[in-house]
Specification:
Elements lengths: L8 H4 L16 E6 L6 H14 L5 E5 L21 H18 L3 E5 L5 H9 L1 H7 L3 E8 L5 H9 L6 E7 L9 H10 L1 H8 L3 E5 L5 H5 L5 H6 L11 H17 L9
Parallel strand pairs: 1-3, 1-4, 2-3, 4-5, 5-6
């Protein structure tokens, strides 16, 4: 069911870099990238982790995507569950949380598309308050395309995992070429599930599209290397026009996520 209420003002300013940054504590962070498959979770983690490492950060990168684990192709020492079995993933999540609390590191955690192991685990231990009580700041980023069904996972997770630091990321990279983002996302923005999350305090961020994303993907490159024209042995060079597009996209990503930059490990 959709709502007749108008979108809250914060939604209209999604991705507005003129908004003041949202401060958070300096406690270690656990950033969870959540959403259905193909909504941009891994792309965001690649961009954010690469940026963090370039600024001297030392985040742990963890990939719990059981069907499409891609982060290990771009980073060294990516942590993963020992197998895709539910019990193994659950045990791995619990061990990861125990270690983060003990060792005090910040981390990115990319969950698989629509994976419900996290939901069940979060409900079993009241995850958000548990992490806060143990000195870890949980950050939930929910990634959305324009498909109304993308709201289902947001609804399911929001029932049991509502960290104070929550954002909904509208990924323009999921849209067909030529489709206007404002029109495409309008049904999402008017929906009760979206409005409930926004009204409880979830921030809204737009994630820009990169037209030449496939040029980066097929070569298994980091965005910085792709922009610099670095390729692996035997690969064709990326042309200057594509490199310029990558440069502008990286700047646009930084501007879009600036209001919640302090949330990112």
């Amino acid at each position: 069911m959709t709502s007749k209420r108008e979108p809250v003002p914060e939604i209209e300013r999604a991705g507005d870099a003129s908004q003041p940054p949202i401060d958070m504590t300096d406690a270690p962070k656990l950033l969870l990238a959540l959403g259905r498959g193909k909504t941009g979770k891994s792309t965001f983690v690649r961009w954010a982790a690469e940026r963090s490492l370039g600024l001297g950060g030392l985040p742990v990168i963890a990939d719990a995507d059981r069907t499409n684990a891609t982060l290990a192709a771009f980073f060294e020492n990516v942590e993963r569950p020992p197998s895709p079995a539910d019990d193994d993933v659950l045990d791995w999540l619990e061990g990861f949380a125990d270690r983060q609390i003990t060792e005090r590191f910040s981390a990115f955690l990319d969950m698989g598309g629509g994976d419900l192991v996290l939901k069940n685990w979060a409900a079993s231990i009241d995850l958000a308050p548990f992490l806060v009580e143990n000195g870890i700041t949980p950050v939930a980023l929910h990634f959305m395309g324009s498909d109304i069904d993308d709201l289902t996972y947001l609804r399911d997770i929001e029932t049991i995992f509502q960290p104070r630091h929550t954002a909904i990321v509208l990924n323009e990279g999921t849209l067909s070429p030529g489709r206007v983002a404002r029109k495409a996302f309008a049904p999402i923005l008017r929906h009760d599930i979206f409005l409930a999350a926004a009204e409880r305090g979830a921030q809204v961020v737009r994630m820009p599209a990169l037209a030449c994303m496939q040029e980066v993907e097929i070569r298994g490159l980091g965005f910085q290397d792709a922009q610099a024209g670095k390729v692996k042995p035997g690969q064709a060079m990326i042309g200057p026009v594509a490199r310029q597009k990558i440069s502008l996209w990286r700047k646009e990503m930084a501007a879009s996520f600036a209001p919640i930059a302090s949330w990112i490990p």
